[in-house]
Amino acid sequence: MRYPNCIFDLYGTLVDIHTDESRPEFWKEMADWYRSFGADYPPEQLHQAYLQAVAQREQGTRILRKDAHEAHPEIQLEQVFLQLFLDKGVSADLALAIRTGERFREASIDYIRLYDGAVELLKVLRANGQKVYLLSNAQRIFTSCELRMLGIEPLFDAIYLSSDYGCKKPDRRFFELPLKEHGISPDSAIMVGNDGVCDIQGARELGLATVYIRSNISPQEPLPQADYVLQSMDLDRVRQILTQN
After folding, report:
1. What is the pLDDT of residues 53-84, one digit of tens each?
2. 224: closest CA among 205, 242, 243?
3. Which residues pair with 158 in a beta bridge?
4. Alpha helices of 6-161 — where are they, by DSSP H?
5. Half-sphere exposure of 89 (CA within 13 A, CB side)
6. How far is residue 36 from each of residues 31, 99, 153, 160, 161, measured CA to CA in Å?
7. What percent of the residues of the chain are helix, what percent strand, and what percent coil, each to the nearest 5?
8. CB atoms within 10 A of CB 163
9. DSSP SS3 for 193
10. How far apart are CA 149 and CA 152, in angstroms?
11. Which of 52, 49, 54, 57 is nearest to 27 (CA)?
12. Around Cβ 118, how many Cβ atoms within 10 Å?
């Protein structure tokens, strides 16, 4: 078997998503949420307090993609939501902060859906005896719920979300996690993603084979040097690549 270990990005590779945190209506909804627990913020004040709290936690981190759907992957946003309660004198706990994060994500999503063929692809790989891993620059408080909602959480042998580790793709430390924990040799693994820097360049530096998919939410960039380049979303073609002997 040519690729016994298949590592996938999530957003823009298996999942199509669009979020919008800029709408005034969104911040009014979140201000109403905070107010219901005793934290009284005007909507714009809450927006600015959120941005400031995120910026404080991101100090010293390297932001590669301002237009990516990464949701501040190197920090834990539940700590931001908790701080916003505490700053208003509300004795909130982590459970409430997580609920707030889930509400935040739900309110900001315009749509979320699997790309055609995503479930079939993952099931075929598993049935073929291949291991399937998820390596995503993402927030656990957002992504865990979305994986369950989309029905694909059980289709991975292991899931790695960057907010849990304080590092993200293309940092080699993040790529090394599944390799080290599962005894995977780089020459037995292939990375599938839609970002030429985070997914493809990062994987190539460790010696992994790569499949690049230019999807509707890929960053605007030149085509990367990948082993396989798909200029549009085509998970049937990805299945053919990954299951070849």
Report:
1. 998 988 866 555 454 555 556 788 999 999 99
2. 205
3. 133
4. 24-36, 43-58, 77-86, 94-108, 118-127, 140-150
5. 2
6. 9, 13, 32, 34, 31
7. 45, 15, 40
8. 23
9. strand
10. 8
11. 49
12. 23
Amino acid at 9: D
Distance, CA of 221 to CA of 225 (rounded, Å): 12
Q: Give me the amino acid identity at 107.
A: A
pLDDT given for residue 35 in this prediction: 98
Q: Find, among 81, 195, 90, 86, the residue nearest to 139 by Cα.
A: 81
Burial class (CB in 10 A: 0-12, 13-18, 19+), 229: middle
Contact partners, residue 129, CB within 8 Å, separation at least 6 = 1, 4
d(CA 76, CA 138): 10
Which pLDDT score, from 0 to 100, does residue 184 have? Answer: 97
Residue 170, preceding peptide bond in cis (omega within 30° of 0): yes
**C-alpha torsion sign, points 202, 208, 212, 217:** negative
Nearest to 7 by CA among 228, 219, 189: 189
Rounded to a whole number of angstroms, the CA Rg of the chain reads 19
CB count within 10 Å of CB 175 equals 24
CB 123 within 8 A of CB 100: no
Burial of 157 (0-12, 13-18, 19+ CB in 10 A): middle
Rounded to two decimals, what is the model's pTM? 0.91
